[in-house]
User: What shape does this take?
Amino acid sequence: MPFVKYRGANGEWIKLGGGNVRVSNGHTWIPPRARIWNGHEWLNLLEERKITTWEATWSEGYWGADHGNIAHTHYNSLWRHDRLAQGDYQPYHDRFNKSIEHGMAGFDDANMRAELAGARIEKVEIYLHSLHWAYMSGGTAVIGLHNARGWQERFSEVNHGVARVRYYRRDQGQWITLPNWVGDNLRDNLITGITTSADNNSLWQYGIFAGIWDGWKKPKIRITYWK
Assistant: This one.
């Protein structure tokens, strides 16, 4: 990608873009636009490609609908309450619960919006680390989205199953690519985090995922964008 520089007061060359130049549109100050034709397409001279990662700031597991989808802080779960649950392990562990359990993870969405303001999203990925599956050979993570503002007493979800990804063993982490519109919605204040919630009661969709107290295994969002 080409770029433009200007000569600074001390004779140094300073790269335009990256937030250090603004022009007025008559109402507010906005990033400038400058394009060049490379023989095939118009390239924005002032865009920079950035990759930013946000770690989860809160996470929670939730009981199923038969207990009002309330947080695992209520009643005793076999798993620490910050860990994201998914699916129905009945009639094995957590026999107390007789419906599909869930998980939620949230991020510093205000910082995310500020960083992504005006950005063009190239790629959206999440890191989700499985700690347990019903089967030793793994299972399928069903990832959705929420728009909650901070820790929630009850599970909520605005988009179910935006990605389904196979894991092949317990204690396995992986980066998972989500649709680019997820980045657009994070930027535009329509969503604030991710969910885990099974499609059905199949044991292939029963899993437990690392939470915010699990160190480097905690959930993360990584976005590649141009701005």
Notes: The first strand starts at residue 5 and ends at 7. The mean pLDDT is 88.
